[in-house]
Design a protein that fits this description.
Elements (H helix, E strand, L loop, with lengths): L4 H16 L9 H22 L6 H22 L8 H20 L4 H33 L6 H27 L10 H27 L8 H8 L4 H28 L5 H14 L2 H5 L5 H25 L3 H22 L1
Helix pairs in contact: 1-2, 1-3, 1-4, 2-3, 2-4, 3-4, 5-6, 5-9, 5-10, 6-9, 7-12, 7-13, 8-13, 9-10, 9-13, 10-12, 12-13
């Protein structure tokens, strides 16, 4: 029987979102802050009614609508920021995402134990991903100390070393929870899924690029691409390393590691979405360090989340690393090759 734990936690998170609407927002985001208050209020009311015994299941959907609206309003607030990010929009954004997740749990009738399992596995996935990021960065820092201070040497070495760190962290995580390494000889289905995924991820990428240009949304580039503007000679090696290091290491951790771990608490589709949220989130530093506006970083991370859904689906459909590694490697290789054609 549903103990309404999801509605209780959702009520708290929606309340945080409502409080966030009264924190500092950018001057250009006044309308967004009012919209955030309205949607958060809807979520608070719907969650509260369900928590205190109103047996109208449609209220769980109303809470979800409020959470989605809060996310949209918070996103508009972030996009309106031209300088330092005030606390209102990011707090509202995270509260809104949490409220959406709790509304989904409420709609599906999850009890406290099931929600706790999702919370625990999500937090472990985030912690492991952050650990892998830090560990990979430390390995890269040590490795680049042994090569000449030339981007043509330091960038490929750093890429291989950080990827190795990601891979080691992924293997350790698999060993910890008994996930098993999903590598086999590619089947015809694996090849088909890899080909379809490659077409899908590139098509989706350019659709989103077109949308960003059409709506004149802020954007930024990966820190590696910024380095390549001054040193385009680093890009050809990165095309190769996309297949040999970047794709295999990141997919081992993100898909075989985190996504598969999330299967233990989420539906497989839910695990794809949540795993991609974690995957996009750990790329924050790579984009935030370029001096871009918060809105540009958010747009770029949103694009990364969307394209990573293709990677999550290819892994979910095959339960093997071949297809997502090929799709990921090809996606990165194409970006590096196009950047070289533009910068060289």
């Amino acid at each position: 029987m549903n103990d309404r734990y999801a509605q209780t936690v959702g009520f708290v998170l929606a309340g945080v979102g409502l409080a966030a609407s009264f924190l500092a927002w950018p001057a250009e985001g006044a309308l967004a802050s009012r919209a955030a208050a309205a949607f958060a209020g809807l979520a608070v009311a719907a969650f509260a009614a369900r928590r205190y015994g109103v047996d109208v299941e449609e209220l769980d959907y109303a809470a979800g609508v409020g959470g989605v609206g809060l996310v949209v309003a918070a996103t508009a607030g972030v996009l309106a920021v031209g300088g330092t990010l005030p606390p209102g929009p990011p707090v509202a954004l995270f509260a809104g995402l949490g409220a959406v997740g709790l509304a989904v749990a409420a709609v599906t009738g999850l009890d406290a134990a099931a929600v706790h399992a999702r919370e625990r596995r999500f937090l472990v996935g985030v912690a492991v991903s952050l650990f892998a990021l830090v560990f990979g960065s430390l390995v890269a820092t040590v490795a680049t100390g042994f090569v000449p201070d030339d981007p043509l040497a330091t960038v490929p070495v750093s890429t291989v070393a950080s990827s190795a760190g990601f891979g080691v962290a992924g293997l350790a995580f698999l060993g910890w929870y008994g996930g098993g390494l999903d590598v086999r000889s590619p089947t015809r289905r694996d090849l088909t899924v890899a080909a379809a995924g490659t077409v899908a991820i590139l098509a989706l990428h350019y659709v989103m690029v077109g949308a960003v240009l059409h709506f004149d949304l802020p954007r930024t580039s990966h820190g590696l691409v910024e380095t390549a503007r001054e040193h385009p000679e680093i890009l050809p090696p990165l095309v190769v390393l996309s297949y040999l290091a970047i794709g295999p290491a990141e997919e081992l951790l993100a898909r075989n590691g985190v996504q598969k771990y999330l299967y233990g608490a989420f539906s497989r589709r839910g695990a794809v979405v949540v795993g991609c949220l974690v995957f996009a989130g750990v790329h924050l530093l790579a984009y935030a360090g370029t001096g871009a506006t918060p809105g540009a970083v958010l747009v770029t991370l949103a694009r990364l989340f969307v394209v990573s859904l293709v990677l999550g689906v290819t892994y979910e459909r095959t339960d093997d690393l071949f297809a997502p590694v090929v799709v990921h490697g090809t996606y990165d290789a194409v970006q590096f090759a196009l950047a070289y054609a533009a910068f060289a």
